[in-house]
Amino acid sequence: MADPSIWIGPPGGDPSTPLPMRTTVTHRRPLSALRRNRLMLSALIVLLLIVLLTVLAPILPIHDPFDADPLQHNAPIGTSAYPLGTDNQGRDILSRLLWGGRISLLVGVAPTVLATVVSLLLGTLAGYFGSLLDQIIMRVLDVFFAFPLVLLAIAIAGILNPGIPTEMLAITIVLVPYISRLARTSTAQVAGLPYVEAARASGAGTAAILARYVLPNAVPPVLVYATTLVGLMIVVGSGLSFLGLGVQPPAADWGAMVGDGAVVLRKAAHVTILPGLMIVVTALAFNIIGDGLRDVLDPRG
Amino acid sequence: MDRSPEAGGVDVEPLLAVQDLRVEFQLETGRLKAVDGVSFTVLPGRVLCMVGESGSGKSVTAKALLRLTEPPGHIVAGSIRYRAVELLSLTGKDMERLRGDRISIVFQNAMTSLNPSFCVGDQVAEGLRLHRGLDRKTARKRAIALLSEVGIPDAARRYRAYPHQFSGGMRQRVLIAAAIACQPDILIADEPTTALDVSVQAQILRLLKRLQDERRNALLIITHDLGVVAAIADDVIVMYAGKIVERAPVTALFDRPQHPYTRGLLDAAGSRGHATARSFAPIPGQPPIAIDLPAGCHFRERCRHALPECATRTPVAITIAPEHAVACHLAAAGQPFFAERTVA
Amino acid sequence: MLNYLVKRLVGLIPVLFGVSFLVFLMVQLAPGDVTTLLLGPLASEEAKATLRQALGLDLPIVVQYIKWLNALLHGDFGTSIATSRGVLELVLPRIGNTLILGGASLVITVVVGFAVGLAAAANRGSLFDRLSVSTVLVIGNIPPFWLGLVLSLLFALQFRWFPISGMTSLNNGGGFSDVIWHLVLPAVTTAAAPAAVVTRMVRAAVLEVLRQDYIQVARARGVPEQTILLKHALRNALPPITTIVGLQLGYLLGGTLFSEVVFAWPGLGQLLYTSIVARDLPVIQAAVLAIALSFVLINLAADLTNQMLDPRSSHG
User: Less Cβ around it within 10 Å: N or C end of chain A?
Assistant: First the structure.
């Protein structure tokens, strides 16, 4: 699992230091622009395919994901009625992968979106108005930074009642500090620019200044950052489900399926491997797209 | 500045003999012939200046001499003989032994040429430890002496100082000290004064000349500044679009330039003897980018005296006077086109 | 340097208070009534009320927090609901085990990250470089729990090179080499993703430095290529790299959690997991607190190392 705080400054450290939009080390990978575009295109196609299949799961001609076939426990890949085999309760893996994908994707995307909205609010307030409000917000967020991201998510999800809403809430809460910090710095950098000062001096209202000058410049890097987080959150979310803290049986997402498969690892490895592969492929696709977006929209450094 | 001509007629063994050197850059837009068949020699105890506009290939030539050409550039043909050794056939390890020891180079960007993490003294001493195998203490002593020699005051204390504590001119001195540490036969200086303040430029030039007088190494200076040439050169090579267009002893070049380009440069720079830098705006037009150039003389487009054959045949260097050669059809046609140039 | 240390330590204090308060608060917000949990669903309202008062649950939150904090500082972490043992004695031994796993993973992360990153930067554009970049991209997206299972499948179940789980063997275990043998798979699992990130960062940092003028000057001086890489380049690439490694610490700790679960390594992570399953709130609380505190301290250590390594801060 990669680390969302790669892009924003020293660990547990002073949030008031001016943060570069990236670390000082940026270097293009040894891929020519053409190859990079081809890579992004492939990633986009793969992702669209996955999203399409999972969204269409209810109307596709596949087994019911809860349908347990007592005669076909742990059927291997290539079994006639079950192209990807069955799990340890005889349920069709292909079907469960598609239905589970809906949850995995949801848990990756929705909290990120929600956290971005909340963070933009918090971050721009802190970054634009500065002084006490800024200090308070940042000090509170600092406390959250004292926890490793995954641990905090697990702790929150573990304490509340397990379930999909809990999982999404936990991930949202955990993301807010990171995105807020970037939103704050991004806003502060723009707010300090001469033309904003000029606008303020000429008597423009705060709302107008925010809308016309500050937000259009401060928001894009935050959005770019948020997209790079989606893939990560799919991995984190799957981790929570693996531990039993997310979706509850008999429903399952990819992480839960890996957890189910762990008990039959020796004799029916595919039950564990297949859902894991889905996570890897999906997260990788998001990662590539996010990187590509970042290169295009935020080519600093 | 009284420079009496070397005793003519005595064949001095060249330290460096460059023959038909070609360096090409593989770019997306095509193959750039940055150095297109350059031949010259570097003699011991003399100062050779290589002059040209940016893009003429002079810096590329300088780096190529030490095989420091970086991709997408490659040395594709030619010969560089240092004493009797063909440099282009040496192994990487042998080249490493040569660099900084027998042949040294100083670049123009003094501000960024020193490693910020090491003290300046260690960087001066590095060559000594590498090539002479000196231990720390001895190398340090020598380095302090070198720093002193190049004009760094309080050298013993300044040894431990870091690059960010020095001005541009001082850093250039440090770099020169590091370059001469092992007493190289040839010191190449690529635009040594360009990035420095005008007031400092003269000091650096004087330093280079003084060191050369004392150590009798060969000094090859790459520059676009005719003032530098006037101040310090013994011999001059003029480059244009990757080729050498004229080569002469300095007095001959200033008094009797034979190539229209050289003539243009001199006219643009004002009277000889001005040490201040003047760039070459007044020749109308721009030097061509050396990709897919047509046959013929590359200077043709900007030359007021172009002959019909200038468009079809590439001029070859011909000697028109002792030590004075020019690559131009006008000279080949035997036209004593340029009379003595009156000094303004 | 000393100044910096003192400044940071002082700055830690509000963070520590904040962390402990947050942990305290988290448990307070847990659904379900503590008294029901402790006394069982059949207990009378009266009994619950008495217990509630005895536990001080009717006092304002801040007071409860202070009482709780006070107890903590006297070593009283409460009793485990599931096992009725003191929480502190459950948690304490595990801290060391997690640190061992975390430490080993850190070593792997740094060693692999630097070795591969440097080699890739030194041979930019080569097959090795391109392979490394692609591999690293993929590995960074592999969930650690799945990786652990896959490694376990291959190397423990299939090839039987390593044990499946635990920290020591049951029969004659306990020795140093025994622990190392058990440590390999979980440490590799934990280190994989952070190592991928470090590799990418090292490569980028070194490439950036290699572009600098002073590198060309060193080459012109005859410094051998290997020395240029290891001495001239690395020295200037280190500060951003150590910052990056510091940022990985959070992921290392998070990763140890999954590895401990998959490989049944007896550390804080596994304790946290089992206590979550058992809804053993006092233990959850203590485990989270222990992990958070370790993280804060480790980050401080990383910060200090960073300060020491940055030449610009100590000289001139």
Answer: C
